[in-house]
Specification:
The chain has 548 residues and is α+β, with helices and mostly antiparallel strands. The chain contains twelve helices and 30 strands. Strand 29, helix 10 and strand 30 form a beta-alpha-beta unit.
Length: 548
C-alpha cells in the first residue's frame, strides 16, 4: 500500500481579448538584464518567468485594472504596480533596485556545531511528483515546498533533491527558495541572492542532486520552507521521489499556497546545528498526527533494503514461466518450506531483515508476486488475490513441495488467506501481517488517497503507469473474504498487526476471531511496516509459532 505519484499542477491564462504587455527587466544599479524574474498578478495564477535576457510577455486580459502586478527575484526590491499602470510599460524597460544586504553576525563556536540531515530522504520510484511540460499544452510553472522546524539557529550546507528519473536533452532550469512561515504556510523568501540551477543528468548522483549552498551563509531558525520551481519549458520529464501521506505545499504562481497531504517531495537538507539544541522531532512539521502514524518515514529501511543482496541474488534466484506469468523467486536455508509474500508494489528485498534469521530454521522461498519486483505478468485484466494464490500453488508444484508454511505481509497476507481457502491441503501454518479480508478494513484516509491516485494516473494516460493503476485498483476492490469464509480456515494461523497499522484494529481483531483457533498479536507503537521497525521481535515470534 505504498504506491502513489503526484503530478505538478499546470498554469494557464484564458484570453478573450488579448492585452499582452512585453518588457525587459533590468538591474537599476548595473543597468543589465536580469534573467528568470517572476512577473505575475497578486493572489492570481496568472504569471510568467522572464527569459535569459530578462524579456517577458504577460497577458493581462480580463484582469482587474486595480490589481497589483508583482515582480520578484531574490536580491532585488519587490516591484509592484497596478495592472492599469503596468500596461503603459509595454515595450519598455522595468528597473529593479538591488536590496541592501543585512548580514547578521552568528556567533556559535565551531566545536558546538554538529552535522544533521532533515527532511524527506526517500528514493522510491513508486511515489513521485511528475514534472512533464508536454503533458498539457500549458505552462507548468508550479512551485512546491516542504516545511522544516528547528529550535536553534542552524546553517544550511546542502539542499538535496531525490530524483527518480530524468529525461531531457537540454539543461532543466530550476529555482530554489527558502521561505519564512506565516499562519502555517510559506510567506516571504528570505534569500538575499538568487539560487538558480541548470540541472543536467550527470549532476544527479545515486538518485540525488545535491546543491552546495554552504558559502551562501543561509541561517535559519523556527519554521521555514524549502521550495523548488521550474523556470523554463523543456522537452522531456522529471520525476521527483515523494513520501506517501506526508504534507507538502504547492501553489500556482502568485496563487495561494495549498497543502498536499497525499505526499511530500523528497527534499532534505544538510545543516550545521548546535549539538545542545533540542530540535523538534523529525525536523519536518506534519499537521496530521494520524497520517504520521500511518505512514512513517521509511527512507532508512528503503536504503538498507536496496543495499542488501535480497531480490537480486543471482546465486539464490531463479525464474520460472508458469502459464501467463513469469515468477522470480529466491531460496535460502534448509528445513520445512516457508514462503514469504511481500506487499503491494514491493518485492523480495522488503524481507531483508527476515530472510537471514528465518533461513537458519527453514527453507525460505521468497517470491516476487506477478507484475511486481522482477516477476512478469502477461495479462492485461484486473488483478486479484486468487490469481496470486494460484501462482503460488503452481510455483510450489514446480518445486515439488507438498506442504508449506506461508508468511504474508499486507497484500501478501491477503494472498495467504486466499491460499488457505483454496488450497488448505497444501498449507501447513499461516502467518498474516497487516492483512485485510475486504477493502473496508483499510483506513478510510488511505483508501481516499488511493482513489485520488487512480484518478491522477488516468489523467496522465501514460502506458508505463498501467501496472501501477492495476495494483491500486486491486487494493480498492479486493479481496472479498466473508466471515463465513474465514470460519472455514482450519490451518493454524497467527494474525499480526501494528498498533498504528493502516488496517483498522477492529478489522484485524475480527479476522483473528473468525478463524478457528487463530492467535492474535498486536505490536504496541508499531505501524504497518513492523517487519522493518521491530524485526527482532517479529522474527522471534514467527519462529516460535512455526516451531511450536
Amino acid at each position: 500500500m505504498k504506491k502513489l505519484t503526484i503530478l505538478f499542477l499546470s498554469l494557464f491564462a484564458v484570453s478573450f481579448h488579448a492585452q499582452v504587455v512585453s518588457a525587459t527587466i533590468f538591474s537599476k544599479d548595473e543597468n543589465k538584464p536580469i534573467p528568470y524574474v517572476k512577473i505575475g498578478v497578486e493572489k492570481e495564477k496568472t504569471g510568467v518567468i522572464s527569459d535569459e535576457d530578462g524579456h517577458f510577455s504577460i497577458d493581462l486580459s480580463n484582469i482587474n485594472a486595480s490589481k497589483p502586478v508583482l515582480i520578484e527575484v531574490p536580491g532585488y526590491e519587490k516591484y509592484s504596480q497596478s495592472v492599469q499602470n503596468f500596461k503603459s510599460l509595454d515595450g519598455q524597460k522595468v528597473f529593479l533596485k538591488e536590496k541592501v544586504k543585512n548580514i547578521d553576525e552568528v556567533k556559535i563556536k565551531t566545536k558546538k556545531l554538529v552535522d544533521k540531515n532533515w527532511g524527506v530522504n526517500t528514493k522510491t520510484k513508486h511515489v513521485m511528483y511528475n514534472v512533464n511540460p508536454d503533458l498539457k499544452n500549458e505552462n507548468f510553472l508550479g512551485e512546491t515546498a516542504l516545511e522544516f522546524n528547528t529550535n536553534k539557529k542552524s546553517k544550511i550546507k546542502n539542499i538535496n533533491l531525490n530524483i527518480s528519473s530524468y529525461t531531457s536533452d537540454q539543461p532543466v532550469v530550476m529555482r530554489y527558495s527558502i521561505y519564512s512561515e506565516k499562519n502555517g504556510f510559506p510567506d516571504k523568501n528570505i534569500l538575499d541572492e538568487e539560487i538558480t540551477v541548470e540541472l543536467t543528468k550527470d549532476m544527479i548522483k545515486d538518485g540525488t542532486f545535491t546543491l552546495d549552498v554552504n558559502d551562501r551563509n543561509i541561517w535559519v531558525q523556527g519554521k521555514f520552507f524549502v521550495g523548488i520551481q521550474f523556470l523554463k519549458r523543456f522537452q522531456g520529464r522529471i520525476t521527483i521521489s515523494a513520501a506517501l501521506l506526508r504534507t507538502g505545499y504547492i501553489r500556482e504562481f502568485y496563487g495561494d499556497w495549498q497543502k498536499m497531504t497525499i505526499a511530500a517531495p523528497a527534499i532534505n537538507i544538510d545543516v550545521k546545528v548546535d549539538k545542545n539544541g533540542k530540535n523538534i522531532k523529525d525536523e519536518v512539521k506534519d499537521n496530521n498526527d494520524k497520517v504520521s502514524l500511518l505512514a512513517p518515514d521509511l527512507s532508512q529501511y528503503n536504503m538498507e533494503s536496496e543495499n542488501s543482496v535480497y531480490g537480486k541474488n543471482g546465486a539464490a534466484g531463479k525464474t520460472v514461466k508458469l502459464n501467463d506469468t513469469e515468477l522470480y523467486y529466491e531460496i535460502y536455508g534448509e528445513g520445512e518450506p516457508l514462503v514469504l509474500l511481500h506487499g503491494n508494489g514491493g518485492s523480495i528485498k522488503e524481507f531483508y531483515k527476515q530472510i537471514p534469521e528465518l533461513s537458519k530454521e527453514f527453507r525460505v522461498i521468497a517470491v516476487d508476486t506477478r507484475a511486481q519486483g522482477k516477476s512478469k505478468d502477461f495479462t492485461k485484466g484486473d488483478l486479484n488475490y486468487k490469481i496470486f494464490a494460484d501462482d503460488l500453488k503452481n510455483l510450489i508444484d514446480h518445486l515439488n513441495i507438498s506442504k508449506t508454511h506461508i508468511l504474508g505481509w499486507s497484500d501478501g497476507g491477503n494472498t495467504g488467506l486466499e491460499f488457505a481457502l483454496k488450497y488448505p491441503q497444501y498449507l501447513n501454518k499461516l502467518i498474516i501481517i497487516g492483512a485485510n479480508a475486504f477493502p473496508e478494513g483499510v483506513d478510510e484516509d488511505l483508501l481516499n488517497n488511493f482513489k485520488t491516485k487512480v484518478h491522477m494516473v488516468q489523467l496522465a494516460n501514460q502506458p508505463e503507469h498501467e501496472t501501477e493503476k492495476r495494483l491500486l485498483n486491486l487494493m480498492l476492490n479486493e479481496p472479498h473474504i466473508t466471515k463465513k469464509s474465514l470460519n472455514k480456515i482450519q490451518n493454524s494461523t497467527l494474525v499480526i498487526a501494528g498498533e498504528n497499522d493502516v488496517i483498522k484494529k477492529e478489522h484485524t481483531q475480527m479476522i483473528a476471531k473468525e478463524i478457528p483457533g487463530a492467535k492474535l498479536k498486536i505490536y504496541p507503537k508499531a505501524s504497518h511496516y513492523l517487519p522493518f521497525e521491530i524485526a527482532e521481535d517479529l522474527n522471534r515470534d514467527v519462529i516460535d509459532f512455526l516451531k511450536n
